[in-house]
Amino acid sequence: MISRLTPRLCEPAAQSESIFLKQVADSFGKACESYADAARLQQQVALTALAMLSANHSGKLLDLGCGPGWIHPELKNYCDEFSAVDLSAGMLSKARSLHLATAYIQADAAALPLATAQFDKLFSSLMLQWCQRPEAVLAEAARVLAPGGQLVITTLVQGTLQELQAAFATLDSRAHTQLFLPEAELIKAAGTVSQVNWHFEQRNYPLYYPDVKSLARELKALGANQVAGRSATGLTGKGYWQKLAAAYEKHRTAQGLPASYQVLFITGTKNAS
Ligand SMILES: C[S@@+](CC[C@H](N)C(=O)[O-])C[C@H]1O[C@@H](n2cnc3c(N)ncnc32)[C@H](O)[C@@H]1O
After folding, report:
1. Where are the domains of the chain?
2. Whose CA is nearest to atom 16 of ligand 1?
3. For the residues of 179-197, what is the DSSP string, one character each?
4. CB under 8 Å to 232, separation ≥6 — which residues?
5. How far is CA 206 from CA 44, 136, 228, 229, in A?
6. pLDDT tens digits, 52-91
7. Which residues of the chain fall below pLDDT 70?
8. CB 176 within 8 A of CB 165
9. How far away, in angstroms, is 53 Cα from ligand 1 center?
């Protein structure tokens, strides 16, 4: 998964954030055709999250970080109409080809070009872990939600890909995977947004792979494969892969090589006044 190539909000913060956003958008753009077939975790998580929204056919919904829109046929059970936002032009155009949303908007979730208090429901699955300023994203989510509106957000937290991280750690001390924040940091970020009654629930989703290359292939198909220092570390070299595979083997179970995904479900309702 893409490492945070730039430290979180170091100076010049705005410039490094915009470079990071472009890297994320490009990476997901390249994966827009392969994403849906590889998204077995994303589908489980998003369908579980969607069931947390009240199922009625009324109101306006926002899908924040919509990806290729594979879930859009389901959204009609939860609203009258919905809008879709994504940072990646490629992902958004894939979603647009379904012609299901009222509007498709290319934007950063931390700075939404959307009017205040216009949505009754906000849904966002597995986007927040790509955002350097979760507090800004949560504030924007709360801003665009109408009073009494409901919000369901999922994200990956610390512990995700811990087996892969442990295998890399036997080879060198570089950060080879994205930094996943601890649940406590997200709770703290949400605490800065006082208009919402937040609720948090963490669940582990273990996935199993025949070998480490299958895991790497899946991450690539999802657009989540870029690793900091890839060329510098010779990550693609045969010797490096063999050592990584040998280190990962220590985690093997009867079901295959495990990869943990720690998912945080963040739900809430915006205060009525
Ligand atoms: C892992 S995909 C999830 C897609 C979809 N929600 C799903 O559950 O399958 C993450 C999506 O978030 C988008 N994304 C990442 N950072 C974003 C940001 N700052 N603002 C808006 N979208 C962003 C990516 O372009 C990508 O389409």
Report:
1. 13-161+177-208+262-270
2. 130
3. PPPPHHHHHHHHHT-TTEE
4. none
5. 12, 30, 24, 27
6. 998 888 999 999 999 999 999 999 899 999 999 999 999 9
7. 1-12, 226-236
8. yes
9. 19
pLDDT score, position 10: 40
> What's the pLDDT score for residue 74?
96
The DSSP code for 259 is E
pTM metric for this prediction? 0.92
Task: List, chain by chain if needed, residues with CB within 6 Å of any ligand 1 atom.
Answer: 24-25, 28, 39, 42, 46, 65-67, 85-88, 91, 108-110, 125-127, 130-131
Residues 20, 225: Cα–Cα separation, whole Å: 14
**What pLDDT, on a 0 to 100 scale, did the predictor assign at position 226?**
57
Q: Is the separation of the CB atoms in 14 and 53 below 8 Å? A: no
* The one-letter amino acid at 145: L
pLDDT at 159: 97
- Give 235-240 contacts, CB < 8 A, sequence gap 24+: 235/176, 240/171
CATH 3.10.450.50 fits 13-161+177-208+262-270, yes or no: no
Of 6, 52, 86, the residue with max ligand 1 atoms within 8 A of its CB, to mutate for a pocket test, comes to 86
Helices (H), 160-249: 162-169, 183-191, 212-222, 230-233, 238-249
Q: Are 50 and 72 in contact (CB under 8 A)?
A: no
Question: What pLDDT shows up at residue 40?
Answer: 96
How do beta strands 81-86 and 257-270 pair?
Answer: unpaired
